[in-house]
Design a protein that fits this description.
The complex is a heterotrimer of chains A (406), B (356) and C (467). With 406 residues, chain A is of the alpha/beta class. Chain A is 55% helix and 7% strand. Chain A has a 4-stranded parallel β-sheet with strand order 2-1-3-4. In chain A, strands 6-5-7-8 form a 4-stranded parallel β-sheet, sandwiched between helices. The N and C termini of chain A lie far apart (57 Å). The mean pLDDT of chain A is 89. Chain B has 2 domains: 2-166 and 319-354, Uridine Diphospho-n-acetylenolpyruvylglucosamine Reductase, domain 3 (2-Layer Sandwich); 170-308. Helix content of chain B is 32%, strand content 25%. Chain B has 13 helices and 17 strands. Chain B starts with a helix and ends in a 21-residue tail after the last helix. Helix content of chain C is 38%, strand content 19%. Chain C has helices at residues 9-23, 31-36, 58-71, 123-130, 147-152, 160-163, 166-169, 198-202, 236-249, 261-270, 290-306, 318-329, 331-338, 356-368, 396-415, 431-438, 441-452; strands spanning 27-28, 51-53, 75-78, 95-98, 105-109, 114-118, 135-136, 170-176, 182-185, 211-218, 220-221, 225-232, 255-259, 281-288, 313-315, 343-346, 373-379, 384-391. In chain C, the strands form 4 sheets. A 7-stranded antiparallel β-sheet of chain C has the order 15-12-14-13-17-18-16, sandwiched between helices. A 5-stranded antiparallel β-sheet of chain C has the order 5-6-10-8-9. Chain C has a 4-stranded mixed β-sheet with strand order 1-2-4-3. Chain C is globular, with a radius of gyration of 22 Å. Classes of the chains: A alpha/beta (406), B alpha+beta (356), C alpha+beta (467). Chains in contact: A-C, B-C. The interface between B and C is large, with 77 and 92 residues.
Chain lengths: 406, 356, 467
C-alpha cells in the first residue's frame, strides 16, 4: 500500500516502523474473515483491514475521532489476523502505535480514565488484589450468581519442591495469577523438579509489563520491565537456563522485551538477552518431554483444550501442548474454530463486556460440543474468563500434568 | 448489399414507411406480422471467416444453416445449440432473430450462449458491430445477445460470430419404456448425476436419452442406465428437432409450455416432454387452452400457442407488466426511432417470443 | 438532464436527511465508511459518496432510488468492493447503496438445479450453504465477491471453459429501475424469455441501468471425481501452445490457468507453495467420472509431453486442491506484495485462442520497453489473460510507462480481433478503449442508457462514454 505519513510522526522511530508495516499490507482482506470482532459486529471498520486503514489515515494526518478510537479499542489484539496474513503484516505492533497516537489526539473521558486507572492499579497492586480475592472467596456463598462466577474457589496449591538441582530456571512473578490461581506456578515447579530443574521465584513487584503496555501506560510498563530485568540479572549471570512464563499472555510480552526496550541505551542489551532466554512453559516442558513422559501417569479423560491467542498467534506456538496431552492418553476432543479468541484478551473483558461475553459463549459452545469432563488452556486470563461461563473445571494444562505425576 | 439496405432503411425512415426483414420464411409462423417492403436477407450470404483452430465462425445473415453446419462438420465441429431448421433453406439470420434452439439446448446452451458478436443495421441505417470473436467480452452492454430473439424488430442482423464446439467423439441413444412422471424424475436425476446427456425426449410412453461425448463416458453411462438401443438415432433426433415426428403431425393446435423441469406431467392431454422436463408440447383445442396456461403458470412457467389456434388470445393473456412494456418500448426506440421495423408485439404467433 | 457535475449541496443535504429519517443508523455519513465505499480493489482515486445506505429489502432499495431520481442524485450500488476498474468511485458524490445486508438465500431448488439469492450473498456463502445438497455454483472470480456484483459486472472465473461465465448462469433477475420500480426478468423456467432478453442487458451493465437485487442462478452437481494437476515448463510459449491444442481438441478441462515465471515466483512466496520452481506453469483441473477424468488426464499428458512439460503433480485431496486454487486466486495479491509499497493494475485482454501465443508475446515485448516489473496470469482456455503491471506511485515516469503499456496491450488485443476487457469491465478506466473497440455501436449503447436512465443517476460516468 502506498503511504505518505504526516510530518508529526514521519521520521520518529514509531513512524518508521508503522510505515514499513503499512507498506507491507496489500489490503487483500483475508484477515477480515478471521477477525473475531468482525464476526460479531460485521463492520469493515471492526476488522483488521478497516483498522489498518483508520490508522493509516491518522498517521497521514487525518484527525481521529472518538469513533476511530472505539474501533481500535474493540480490537482484542488476539493477532489471529497475523496468522491469516500472507504478507506478514505485523498488525499487533501497528495497532499499538495507532492506539497511542489516537489516545494522544483524542484523549479519554474522565470516566474512561478512571476505569482504566482503577483496573491497572487494582490488578497491579498485589496486596490489594490478594485481599480482594480472599474476601471474595470468603463471602462467595453469599454472592449473586453473576459475581460468584468471577470468584472461583481456590485450588490447593500444594508445596513448592525443596530439592536444589544444578539446573535452574526463573519463573515470572505474575501480577494476577498468583492471587487467582497460585496452583499453576506450584504445579510448574513440581513438574520441572521431576525433570531435574529447580524453578526459582524472585519477586520484583510482579507483572511483566503487558497490562500497563496495553492500557497505554508506557512509562509504567517500562518501570515494570526494568524491575524484572534487575531482579533476574543475578540469577541469569549465575546460569539460569530460561525465564519461564506460565501464562502465555506474559510469555509473549517477555519475548518482546528486546523490541520493547530497543531505544533504551542502558537496558537494550540486557533486554535482548532476557527475551532470548524467555520461554513459554509449554516450550520448556516439551524440551524435557522425553524424560518427563515416563513420570506422568496416563489418563483417558475426555478433555478439550483452548489455545490462547498469545500462544498460537502471538508466539506462533501451535500444537505443542496438544501433542503432549495426547501423548499421555488424554482424549483430546476436536474443537471448532480453535483459532478464535475467547474474548478475555487481558482487560478487554472488563472494558468491552458485550463483545467479550458474546465471544465467550461462542467459545464455550465449541469447547463443550463434544462433552468434555474438563477444559484446559494456557493462560490465566482465558482460564478465569471461560470459568465464569461454565460449571466444568477450567485448568491450566500444567495442572493436569502435575495431577498425574507418579 | 449492406449499402443498399442502409439506403433502403434510411429512405423508409425518411418517408415513414415500414420494412419487413425476411430470410427463407421457414419461421414466419412464429414471427410478428410484417408489413411493407420486404428486405430479403438471402442476398447477403456466405461464410466470412472460418478457421477451425480459432473455434469461431463468422457468417453472413443469409447463409443457409445447412451450409454452415456442413462446413463445420467437415472440420469436426458443430453449432452446439442444434438449431431447428423448419425448412431446407432456413438462414442463420432467421435462426438468431427467432432465437430458437434444438434438443441440445438444455445441456449445451441456447443460441444466445453461442453468439459471440453480431453486426446489425439499425433503424437509422447505421451499420454497427457488437461483441466480437472472443469467448469472453465485458466491454459495454451485451447488445449482441439482446438481438437474439428480437425478430427483426431492432434491425437487420447482417453478420454473426458463433462459438464452435468439437463434435462429440461418440454418441448413443437409449430408449426406456416409462410413464411421464417416471421419465421426468429420471431426466432430472441422471443429469444431476453428471451423465453425459445431450438430449432427452419423452413421447408416446418412451423416454429417449442421447448420450454423447468421449467414448468411455458414453459407454459407462449406457451400461449404467441400460434401456434399448435406438438404431439410426441421428435421423430420429433430426426428425424430432424439425418437428417431423408423428406427434407433431397429428396436432391440430399445439401449445408450447415452458416450465420448471420437475413440474408434474398433465396426464389428460397428449403431451411430449423434452429439455430434461423444462419444455412440454401439448395437443390442445379451444376448450383446453385456458387450462394449459393455468397449469403452466402453476408450474412456474407459461404456455403459448405454437401452431394453429388463436394466438392473439394467448398474447393478450400473458402480456408484459407495465414497467417491462415501458422498457421494451425504450429499447425498441433506441434502435429504431422511426419505427421502420415491425414491433415485437404485433405478433402473429405467440410462439415467437418463446425462443431460447 | 445528465448528471455531469455534483448535485447542489442543498439537494444532497436534504436527501441525506430524508435517508437518515427513513434508515436511521443504516444511513452512514462518516468519512471512513464513505471512503471504504469509494473504491474497489483497483487503483484508488478520491471520489467519495455523500452517504452510504444499507437497505434490507427490494422495496427499501426502490425507495432510495426513487428519492435520488426525484432529487437527481447519483446512485452507486456496492456489493463487497472488489471491482478493479473504478466502478465504485463516486465521481459526482451521491448515494452509495451497500447491499451487504441483503444476504439471504431465498430458495434452493435442488431438483431443478437452481437457486434464488439476494444480491448481497457472496459466492463462498452460497457454496457453503448448498454444500449438503451435493450442488455447487462454479463461477469463481478471485475475490469472494457478492453475486449481485458478479452479475452487474458479468464476472467470470477460473472454470469458465467448462461452466461459462455469469451471463450463461443467470436465469433471471429482480432489478430496481432508475425510476424506482421493481421488475423481474426471466422466469423460473430456465429456457424461456418473454420479449427481449432483458436479463442479458442488465447482466454486465455495471449498475448503470438499474440495481440488481435478486438473482436466479443455475447450480451444478459436484462431479464424481475432481482432480487437479500442475505442470511446469521452461518456455512460456510451450505452456500457451499446450492450452491452444487442448482447446482445439475439445478436451473438456474444468480449469486451465497459466502463470508466468514472475507470477509463479510471487505466488510461491505469498502462498507458501512448496516444491515448485519459478517457471511458467499450468494449473489444471478435471471434472467427471473416474474413467472420464482418467482419459482427460492421459490426453493432456501426451500434449504436455510434446511441448516439454514437466511431470504432473496431482492434488486429489480437497485440502490440497483448495490450497492450490487459493494460491491461483490470490495471484493478484501475490503480485501486489511482490514489491511492497508499489501499486499495480492488471490488463484484461481476451483474444481468439489461436492468437493467444502471439498476443502474450506482443504484450511481453511491450513491457520489455519499460523498466517495470510485470507478471502474467490468465484464464487461457478462453484466450483471456492479465498482465499485472507494478509501479512506484510516487514516480511519475513509472506511472506513465505503466499506463501507456496497458493501453498499448489493450490496443494489440483489439487489433487481433479481441477485446480490451474479458472480465474486469469498463468502469472508468476503459471508456476510451471501449470506443476504440466498438466504434459507432457505442452510440446505440448510449441511446439505451439515456432511454432507460434519462436523468443519468445510475452510476454516472461509468461503462458507456456519454459524449
Amino acid at each position: 500500500m502506498q503511504t505518505n505519513l504526516a510530518p508529526f510522526i514521519k521520521d520518529t522511530p514509531q513512524g518508521i516502523e508503522a510505515d514499513a508495516i503499512l507498506r507491507s499490507c496489500v489490503h487483500c482482506g483475508f484477515c477480515t474473515a478471521t477477525c473475531p470482532t468482525y464476526q460479531v459486529l460485521g463492520d469493515e471498520l471492526d476488522g483488521p483491514r478497516g483498522r489498518i486503514y483508520l490508522i493509516k489515515q491518522v498517521l497521514e494526518g487525518a484527525e481521529p475521532t472518538k469513533k476511530t478510537q472505539q474501533h481500535l479499542d474493540r480490537c482484542l489484539t488476539c493477532r489471529n489476523c497475523e496468522s491469516a496474513c500472507p504478507s506478514g503484516v505485523q498488525y499487533g505492533r501497528l495497532v499499538d502505535i495507532g492506539r497511542s497516537v489516537v489516545e494522544e489526539k483524542v484523549g479519554r473521558t474522565a470516566l474512561e480514565k478512571a476505569t482504566r486507572a482503577t483496573l491497572r492499579k487494582a490488578l497491579l497492586n498485589k496486596p490489594l488484589f490478594n485481599t480482594a480475592m480472599k474476601i471474595g472467596r470468603a463471602v462467595r456463598p453469599l454472592l449473586p450468581s453473576a459475581l460468584k462466577a468471577k470468584v472461583q474457589p481456590l485450588r490447593n496449591a500444594g508445596t513448592w519442591p525443596t530439592a536444589q538441582h544444578a539446573r535452574t530456571m526463573i519463573v515470572l512473578d505474575n501480577c494476577v495469577q498468583n492471587a487467582m490461581s497460585p496452583s499453576i506456578d506450584f504445579a510448574t515447579a513440581r513438574v520441572l523438579d521431576k525433570a531435574g530443574v529447580t524453578l526459582k521465584w524472585v519477586s520484583a513487584g510482579g507483572c511483566c509489563g503487558a497490562l500497563s503496555h496495553h492500557l497505554n501506560a508506557h512509562d509504567e510498563a517500562v518501570t515494570k520491565v526494568k524491575a524484572n530485568i534487575d531482579a533476574w540479572w543475578p540469577l541469569i549471570e549465575a546460569g539460569a537456563e530460561a525465564i519461564v512464563g506460565t501464562a502465555s499472555g506474559c510469555s509473549v510480552m517477555l519475548k518482546d522485551y528486546g523490541h520493547f526496550m530497543q531505544h533504551d541505551a542502558a537496558y537494550a542489551e540486557k533486554a535482548k538477552r532476557v527475551a532470548a532466554l524467555s520461554k513459554d512453559v509449554s516450550e520448556v516442558i516439551a524440551a524435557e518431554w522425553p524424560q518427563l513422559k515416563a513420570k506422568v501417569k496416563a489418563s483417558s479423560d475426555r478433555i478439550s483444550y483452548h489455545p490462547p491467542c498469545t500462544l498460537q498467534h502471538g508466539m506462533k506456538l501451535k500444537g505443542g501442548v496438544e501433542a503432549m496431552l495426547k501423548d499421555i492418553g488424554f482424549d483430546l476432543l476436536p474443537v471448532a474454530d480453535s483459532h478464535l479468541c475467547c474474548g478475555s484478551a487481558g482487560t478487554y473483558s472488563v472494558l468491552q463486556p458485550t463483545i467479550s461475553e458474546e465471544l465467550k459463549s461462542r467459545k464455550l459452545k465449541s469447547l463443550t460440543a463434544e462433552g468434555p469432563s474438563q477444559i484446559a488452556t494456557s493462560n490465566i486470563g482465558c482460564m478465569t474468563h471461560l470459568q465464569s461461563g461454565t460449571t466444568l473445571p477450567v485448568k491450566h494444562w500444567i495442572e493436569l500434568l502435575d495431577e498425574r505425576l507418579a | 448489399m449492406i449499402e443498399t439496405w442502409q439506403q433502403q432503411i434510411k429512405a423508409a425512415a425518411a418517408k415513414g414507411e415500414k420494412l419487413a426483414i425476411k430470410g427463407s420464411g421457414s419461421k414466419s409462423f412464429l414471427a410478428p406480422v410484417r408489413v411493407g417492403l420486404t428486405l430479403d436477407t438471402r442476398s447477403h450470404a456466405g461464410i466470412v471467416e472460418y478457421d477451425p483452430k480459432e473455434l469461431v465462425i463468422v457468417v453472413k445473415c443469409g447463409t443457409r444453416v445447412a451450409d454452415v453446419e456442413k462446413a463445420m462438420a467437415d472440420a469436426g465441429q458443430m453449432l452446439a445449440f442444434e438449431p431447428p431448421h423448419f425448412g431446407d433453406d432456413s438462414t442463420i439470420g432467421g435462426t438468431v432473430a427467432a432465437g430458437i434452439s434444438g434438443p441440445r439446448r438444455a445441456y449445451a446452451g441456447a443460441v444466445r450462449d453461442f453468439v459471440l458478436g453480431a453486426k446489425v443495421i439499425d433503424g437509422k441505417g447505421d451499420h454497427l458491430s457488437f461483441g466480437g470473436k472472443v469467448m469472453k467480452n465485458v466491454a459495454g452492454f451485451d447488445v449482441s445477445r439482446l438481438l437474439v430473439g428480437s425478430f427483426g424488430s431492432l434491425g437487420v442482423i447482417t453478420e454473426v460470430a458463433f462459438k464452435c464446439l468439437p463434435l462429440p467423439k461418440a454418441q448413443a441413444t437409449r430408449v426406456f419404456e416409462m410413464d411421464a412422471a417416471t421419465a421426468i424424475e429420471a431426466m432430472n436425476r441422471w443429469y444431476a448425476e453428471a451423465d453425459p446427456i445431450t438430449a432427452t425426449t419423452w413421447v408416446d410412453g418412451k423416454l429417449h436419452v442421447r448420450f454423447a461425448g468421449a467414448e468411455p463416458a458414453v459407454n459407462t453411462a449406457v451400461q449404467k442406465r441400460g434401456g434399448e438401443a435406438l438404431v439410426n438415432d441421428v435421423d430420429w433426433w433430426r426428425d424430432w428437432r424439425e418437428q417431423r415426428h408423428a406427434f407433431f403431425a397429428s396436432a391440430k393446435e399445439l401449445h408450447r409450455v415452458s416450465c420448471k423441469s420437475t413440474a408434474p406431467a398433465t396426464d389428460d392431454m397428449r403431451t411430449a416432454i423434452e429439455w430434461g422436463g423444462a419444455l412440454r408440447w401439448v395437443h390442445a383445442d379451444e376448450a383446453s387452452a385456458a387450462k394449459i396456461r393455468y397449469q403452466a403458470s402453476r408450474a412456474g412457467g407459461y404456455a403459448s400457442v405454437w401452431r394453429g389456434g388463436a394466438s392473439t388470445h394467448a398474447s393478450a393473456a400473458q402480456s408484459l407488466s407495465d414497467p417491462l412494456k415501458d422498457i421494451h418500448a425504450k429499447i425498441k426506440a433506441s434502435f429504431d426511432p422511426y419505427n421502420v421495423f415491425p414491433s415485437l408485439s404485433s405478433s402473429a404467433g405467440e410462439g415467437a417470443r418463446q425462443g431460447g | 438532464m445528465l448528471v455531469f457535475e455534483r448535485p447542489s449541496e442543498t439537494a444532497v443535504a436534504s436527501a441525506v436527511d430524508a435517508l437518515r429519517k427513513d434508515f436511521g443508523e443504516r444511513a452512514v455519513t462518516s468519512h471512513s465508511v464513505r471512503e471504504h465505499h469509494s473504491h474497489g480493489e483497483g487503483m484508488r482515486d478520491a471520489g467519495l459518496p455523500d452517504v452510504v445506505v444499507f437497505p434490507e429489502t427490494n422495496e427499501e432499495v426502490a425507495s432510495i432510488v426513487k428519492l435520488c431520481n426525484q432529487a437527481r442524485i447519483p446512485v452507486i450500488a456496492f456489493g463487497t468492493g472488489t471491482s478493479l476498474e473504478g466502478h465504485l468511485k463516486a465521481l459526482y458524490g451521491g448515494v452509495c447503496i451497500d447491499l451487504s445486508r441483503m444476504n439471504n438465500i431465498l430458495q434452493v431448488n435442488a431438483e431443478d438445479l437452481d437457486c434464488r439469492v439476494q444480491a448481497g450473498v457472496t459466492r463462498e456463502q452460497l457454496n457453503a450453504e448448498i454444500r449438503s445438497t451435493g450442488l455447487f455454483f462454479p463461477i469463481d472470480p478471485g475475490a469472494n465477491a457478492s453475486l449481485g456484483g458478479m452479475s452487474a459486472t458479468r464476472a467470470s472465473g477460473t472454470n469458465a471453459v467448462r461452466y461459462g461465465t455469469m451471463k450463461e448462469n443467470i436465469l433471471g433477475l429482480t432489478v430496481v429501475t432508475p425510476d424506482g420500480r421493481i421488475i423481474k426478468t426471466g422466469t423460473r423456467a430456465r429456457k424461456s424469455s418473454a420479449g427481449y432478453d432483458l436479463t442479458r442487458l442488465y447482466v454486465g451493465s455495471e449498475g448503470t441501468l438499474g440495481i440488481i437485487t435478486e438473482i436466479q442462478l443455475k447450480l451444478y452437481g459436484v462431479p464424481e471425481r475432481i482432480s487437479a494437476a500442475v505442470c511446469q515448463f521452461d518456455e512460456l510459449s510451450n505452456a500457451v501452445n499446450v492450452v491452444i491444442t487442448a482447446m482445439q481438441l475439445g478436451i473438456p478441462m474444468a480449469r486451465i490457468e497459466l502463470l508466468d515465471e514472475v507470477q509463479m515466483d510471487a505466488c510461491i512466496k505469498y502462498s507458501k507453495l512448496e516444491g515448485f520452481a519459478a517457471k511458467p506453469t499450468l494449473f489444471m483441473e478435471f471434472h467427471g467420472t473416474d474413467a472420464y477424468v482418467a482419459e482427460q488426464i492421459e490426453q493432456m499428458k501426451s500434449i504436455t509431453a510434446d511441448y516439454g512439460g514437466s511431470d504432473y503433480r496431482f492434488a486429489d485431496k480437497p485440502e490440497d486442491r483448495t490450497k492450490l486454487w487459493k494460491a491461483r486466486h490470490d495471484a493478484y495479491w501475490a503480485g501486489m506484495s511482490y514489491k511492497p509499497g508499489n501499486q499495480a493494475f492488471a490488463t484484461d485482454s481476451c483474444v481468439p485462442i489461436s492468437r493467444l501465443a502471439d498476443c502474450i508475446a506482443a504484450a511481453k515485448a511491450e513491457i520489455a520497453k519499460t523498466s517495470l516489473t510485470c507478471m502474467i496470469v490468465g484464464h487461457v482456455g478462453d484466450g483471456n489473460f492479465h498482465v499485472q503491471i507494478s509501479f512506484n506511485p510516487d514516480n511519475a515516469q513509472e506511472r506513465e510507462q505503466a499506463e501507456t503499456a496497458a493501453a498499448q496491450i489493450a490496443r494489440i488485443a483489439i487489433g487481433m480481433g479481441g477485446t480490451c476487457t474479458g472480465e474486469h469491465g469498463i468502469g472508468i478506466h476503459k471508456l476510451d478503449a471501449l470506443k476504440e473497440e466498438h466504434g459507432e455501436a457505442v452510440d446505440v449503447m448510449r441511446t439505451i442508457k439515456k432511454a432507460l436512465d434519462p436523468n443519468n443517476i445510475m452510476n454516472p460516468g461509468k461503462t458507456i462514454p456519454m459524449n
